[in-house]
Amino acid sequence: MQVSAIPAFSDNYIWAIHATAPSQNLCALVDPGDAKVCLAFLQRENLQLASILITHHHRDHTGGVEQLLSYAKQRGWAVDVYGPAGEDIKHISHYVNEGDRVSLPYLDQSFSVIDVPGHTRGHIAYYNSFQDGTLFCGDTLFSGGCGRLFEGTAEQMLSSLNKLVALPGSTKVYCAHEYTQANLHFARTIEPENSQLIEYELKVQNLRNSDIATIPTSIATESQINPFLRSHTDTVKAQVQHLCGESYSSNVEVFAATRLLKDNF
């Protein structure tokens, strides 16, 4: 199994899941918000679309589905479209919840569905334990950050992030945006003495200077540097309380205050 990035819009990543062997030309797309760049990728790589995996309803994740299905129909391709049962999204053929599995038989792989509300009410993620582990998490977890709380609560988002951080540390995290540099600028205000964060920020700066993607990241890396996964630590709690001039008694309160600081950063 191979995962390829398809850049879209100004900072989105659409992910293509396909085989490394050229003889196996079926593929899946994750959150195809832009059909044009997806079709160019399929044609360039001589791939046939077989599955679409959607994490949530926002247009930059779903906007290309209708055109992709029309393209596939013209060529006689059958395409399964998976998406969250808790959201109203057009063209879904298989609505899924936590505990369901999404099978990609042409890759001999399957993904377990994880409910991760917070960014939206019905947001889901797809996890596969193959090799080091692969996670497609949409806009829930970013490198150095997390999604805005457009529809859910801080309690929901923290619970969702706790589910993801409990995955094996080796798990590769494929989020949907190149937000890493901006996230790390904020993260440094929360943990300015975090040596792992300082080292990671330098690595990310070098990658972006060379126009190289910072994604995938890993659960292990995010556990060390992402303030939204570290609300339970004394350093994050103390700094957030200092910045907000408040005293917090729970991890949820620390998380909510951190999210508000980032919203206004």
UniProtKB/TrEMBL annotation:
UniProt-listed Enzyme Commission number(s): 3.1.2.6
Domain Metallo-beta-lactamase: 11-177
Family matches, as InterPro entries: Clx_II_MBL (IPR035680), Glyoxalase_II_hydrolase (IPR050110), HAGH_C (IPR032282), Hydroxyacylglutathione_Hdrlase (IPR017782), Metallo-B-lactamas (IPR001279), RibonucZ/Hydroxyglut_hydro (IPR036866)
GO molecular function, one term: metal ion binding
Pathway: Secondary metabolite metabolism; methylglyoxal degradation; (R)-lactate from methylglyoxal: step 2/2
Cofactor(s) needed for function: Zn(2+)
Keyword list, A-Z: Hydrolase, Metal-binding, Zinc
BP-aspect Gene Ontology terms: methylglyoxal catabolic process to D-lactate via S-lactoyl-glutathione
Ligand binding (Zn(2+) 1): H56, H58, H119, D139
Its biological purpose: Thiolesterase that catalyzes the hydrolysis of S-D-lactoyl-glutathione to form glutathione and D-lactic acid.
Quaternary structure and partners: Monomer.
Similarity comment: family membership: Belongs to the metallo-beta-lactamase superfamily. Glyoxalase II family.
HAMAP family named among the record's database cross-references: Glyoxalase_2 (MF_01374)
Protein's UniProt name: Hydroxyacylglutathione hydrolase
Originating gene: gloB
